[in-house]
User: Fold these one by one.
Assistant:
Number 1:
Amino acid sequence: MMQSLRAPAMAGAFACVVAGWAPVAHAEKRVFNMTIEDTMITLVGKQKFHTFAFDGQVPGPLIHVKEGDDLTINVENDTTLPHTIHWHGLLQTGTWKMDGVPDITQKAIQPGDTFTYHFKAEPAGTYWYHCHVNTNEHVAERGMWGPLIIDPKDPLPIEKKVTKDFLLMFSSWDSAYWNKPGYGGVPGDVNNYFTINGKAFPDTQPIRVKKGDLVRVRVFGAGDEMHELHLHGHVFQIFAKDGHPLPAMINADTLLFGPGERYDILFKADNPGIWMVHDHIDMHTVNGTKPMGGAMTTVEYDEVNKDQPFYIWAHKKFVPNFYYEDSMKKGYGIFTNPDFKGVPIQ
Ligand SMILES: [Cu+2]
């Protein structure tokens, strides 16, 4: 394994490998409970989608822990189909049966059953969890994903300077299968709705910053399409890929990422204004056949008057924590978000 930029303690990690994983004394034990529920979400007030939602919400709850923590996650499947949870990018050293792949590392969790995952939170960085049963449907079309952030024991100097931390999970949807659970996500299908954190523009929320912030944006390819994040008015730095800091940051204004990928980007909030943020794959900025929708939002500076006669969000109700930015400040734990809740399907 190559040395990670932020892991001077690899010798200690190898010590655990020798005898299989056993929790180390200084690790925090954290126990979380999650359900999987048949849940209906509605995009832009009109297009419904049947989801298998973690804790009844899309995205699922934020799991925020520290590198090395001893995690126990009890999962209860309250839907009518089998599922698992795969902890994407985690090493599972000595715990391969916790990797969450049906018929490879476990039997899928049947309707009404529970399963307990127990593993160590490593490596540090931006990770996510998702179902691994019929991923072409359950991940790509049914919203079975959520963020898993593992703070490093030894953050890099620039990470300590971050003042705002936003999580953006990109995904796509196919209205042809909105009410056909168990189907969809096969070759030839065409996605026609595109979301950030489970909402399509104009139902997304602005990314609120103030001049002087060092902003960290963590992007996730949570669906089954490529996406290309474009931020207007700024040069950002690509800081990490798939949780791992790059040897040198890359300056960019667009970022192409595919299914499963995560990138952490940083930008200095030094240009007050209202700035477009959008998927530059133009077909991803529609709702069905209607343009000006999909995977779009804005960066809004606190210093700027939003009440502009041309601004589509001039009088928008602001919903904080849409990007889990408030939850990320609350320390470690599991954080649900009422804004992502759908309606239970009986
Ligand atoms: Cu599933």
Number 2:
Amino acid sequence: MEHHFKVLHKDTETAARAGVLTTNRGLVHTPVFMPVATQGTVKAVTERDLVEIGTECMLSNTYHLYLRPGLPTFEKFGGLNNFMKHEGPILTDSGGFQVYSLSRLRKITDSGVHFASHIDGSPHFFTPEKVIDYQASIGSSIWTCLDVCVKNPASRADALDALKKTKKWAERAKVHFDEKTRHMDPAKRPQLFGIIQGSIYTDLRAEAAKHMAELGVDGFAVGGLSVGESKAQMMESLAAVMENLPKNKPVYFMGLGTPEDIWNSVELGVDMFDCVLPTRNARNGQALTSTGKLYIKNAPFKNDESPLDAECDCICCRNYSKAYLSHLFKAGEILASQLISIHNLRFLINQTKAMRLAAAAGTFKQAKKAFMDAYLPK
Ligand SMILES: [Zn+2]
């Protein structure tokens, strides 16, 4: 899709930018944090709450939805949006990462990947073309190409082999995507993001980025980072990618979700983020706040009347005390998971909004420093 992404403002000192992505289900203002609905639900958060916290785009997963409930369900219901009663755009991960991290008996060939389901051991075979078809059945707004992910640290030979396959598969996915969507009304057409691999080898990352830029996909997903490498290696690899991508298309860093990592990546020009940690940690009683992480079960909160974060405007912070949340958590009440999940998601959505405003005002560096000074442990 041409002109589907507009950079509205650029920061003066850094590569941070404020943009807007037009999808077939509405606008997404970037930088954006996308809550993760792996199984067609953001864990412990209702659709009404997702709307209230300002969710503009959500993430789901081809591998999980294909295995359960299975694609015939989406065909019957007219797609995941109708099935889960969600209005806004959904980005689906191709499943490459889950095949590598969850499934058993994986065998990758040039044509695709054989694997056994992590649920019942049944055998399956994903190809780049099939994964495009699956995302058509799911009916998501942003599709991704099937990729080969390697665990870091990976040898150069393994990283190179994974990259070669990922490039070939992206080419095949693009051809199939174009055939499938060519005759669609442009306003209804989904978008295709290519996944950039290359492990921690900056020359491979640069090569992967250039290849994906030439392929003419609608956006770029940076995969295979934040999977075991050091922070320094992660940022060097990301920088190598960003230097070799065109500036007129959105860039999505897959699975990155700590506030400090998001600030650092937006500084390099990344636009989109998702992560399961804000909701997973919430279920373990950990809240993100503007003055750092907070563990709600800790003793000092027993009689604390203040909200989780005095600067937050979410339903949890507007209504409830740390003492109440601490009590709920210790009593094993599911409302604790619900409220802290809502808060953590709203916190990250508010952070990306602050980044957007700072990029527009040309004050990104100062805003990032102010955040880090208050957030990171002294
Ligand atoms: Zn809150």
